[in-house]
Design a protein that fits this description.
It is built from 4 helices and 4 strands; from the N terminus they run αβββααβα. By secondary structure, it is α+β, with helices and mostly antiparallel strands. GO terms for molecular function: endonuclease activity; hydrolase activity.
Length: 127
């Protein structure tokens, strides 16, 4: 698990390239809230939008994470369940603080993900 990248993954880089090409500027791998020890992949500070690009295996994608692992299934099912609970808690805390969390699955096409993010950021900036 230590060898897993925490930032600059291929899906993240693809979305970031498209967002930058759309003229949007952002911070990378930042904690949206100072006292929250969780980091978003992409943060739009003034618009208060935090983007998380979640890996299908690690975050329990309903489309791709349907069967249990062969090696140590008790550990992995608990690990993935705790990751999902932490994701829900993070989203809740961000919403309570006035932020908009955006969750993107790694299998989503980068273009549609970037368009969805850009739409949310522009909407938040104009309101």
């Amino acid at each position: 698990m230590q060898l897993q990248r925490t930032r600059d993954t291929a899906p993240e880089l693809a979305v970031r390239r498209l967002l930058h090409a759309m003229g949007l500027r952002y911070r990378v791998d930042r904690a949206p809230l100072p006292k929250l020890r969780r980091r978003a992949d992409i943060v739009f500070g003034p618009a208060k939008v935090a983007v998380f690009i979640d890996g299908c295996f690690w975050h329990g994608c309903p489309e791709h994470c349907r069967r249990e692992t062969q090696a140590n299934p008790a550990y992995w099912s608990g690990k993935i369940a705790s990751n999902r609970a932490r994701d829900a808690d993070t989203d809740s805390r961000l919403v309570d603080a006035g932020w908009t969390p955006v969750r993107i699955w790694e299998h989503e096409p980068a273009q549609s993900a970037a368009e969805r993010i850009a739409s949310i950021v522009r909407q938040r900036r104009s309101s």
